[in-house]
Amino acid sequence: MALKKKKRKLSPEELTEMCIECGAKCCKYFSLEIDEPDCPDEYEDVRWYLCHENTWVFIDEGKWYLYLNNKCRYLDKNNLCSIYDKRPLICRKHNQKDCEINSDIFYDVLFKNIDDFEKYLELKGEKYW
């Protein structure tokens, strides 16, 4: 049996450097879980989401998400949080092991527009009209 090496906790300076190097990916979007669409009205909802700029829908491990490619208003020009001491709990809970610095792909299926979604429905044999 192999033992997993524990990651050491990074210092605040190392975390700052990590965020600068990463480009603060985690602060430039957010996603919300949505119900998997299973009827024409819900397909229309997904189509409507995809009509909006910087908005995608993705599926990851069977769960559906609305992805909003929208930078945090408190991210400064150096990709650091300008309200770090007062940042929201979800930001406080995000830690180095969750860092996206080495990860770009976090979905199984991605819809960036209506065409992507409609092609997916066709492949699945779903009628949406």
Describe the secondary structure blueprint for this structure.
Layout: H1 12-22, E1 30-34, H2 40-49, E2 55-60, E3 63-68, H3 89-93, E4 109-111, H4 114-124
Antiparallel strand pairs: 1-3, 2-3, 2-4
Average pLDDT rating: 86
Number of helical stretches of at least 4 residues? 4
Report the principal-axis shape.
elongated
Helix content: 25-40%
Q: What is the H/E order?
A: HEHEEHEH
Oligomer type = single chain
Question: How large is the radius of gyration?
Answer: 18 Å
- Strand portion, in percent? 15-25%
User: How many DSSP E strands?
Assistant: 4
Number of domains: 1
How far apart the termini lie comes to: 54 Å
The stretches of 5 or more residues where confidence is low (pLDDT under 50) are 1-6
Strand order of the largest sheet: 1-3-2-4
Helix and strand composition category = alpha+beta
Main β sheet profile? 4 strands, antiparallel
How does this model look, in words?
This protein is an alpha+beta fold. The protein has one domain (17-124). Helices cover 29% and strands 16% of the residues. The protein has helices spanning 12-22, 40-49, 89-93, 114-124; strands at residues 30-34, 55-60, 63-68, 109-111. It has a four-stranded antiparallel beta sheet. Mean pLDDT is 86; it is low at 1-6.
Question: What structural keywords apply?
Answer:
single chain, 129 residues, alpha+beta, four-stranded antiparallel beta sheet, 4 helices, 4 strands, elongated
